[in-house]
Amino acid sequence: MEHIKDYDTLVDKMNQEKFVLYVMSVGCSVCHADLPKVERLLENYDLPSAKILVNEIPEAAGQLSLFTAPVIILNAQGREFHRQARIIDFEALEHRLSQLNDL
């Protein structure tokens, strides 16, 4: 999973036809625990993905309404398709990844 460190790159990626974003913050133990699970799920799909540390890109917090971490955002055709925050339901996430992959 690519690590994005600037807002312009993030915007370019999010405007792709399909894109998965994982948002973490420094010191968030849940973020670091969930990341490998998300990466394993993504191995089953041909979807571009990236992660950001919200502390490195503070403008992303405001523009994407990121009030907690972790957050996973699925985009389809430049628009938000699905979002989960704080407590990730991996069954629901897998279902949504499958839907996004099939679009």
UniProtKB/TrEMBL annotation:
Entries under CDD domains matching the protein: TRX_family
Cite the SUPFAM superfamilies for this sequence: Thioredoxin-like
Q: Which domain of life is it from?
A: Bacteria
Question: What name does the UniProt record give this protein?
Answer: Thioredoxin family protein
Species assigned in the record: Macrococcoides bohemicum
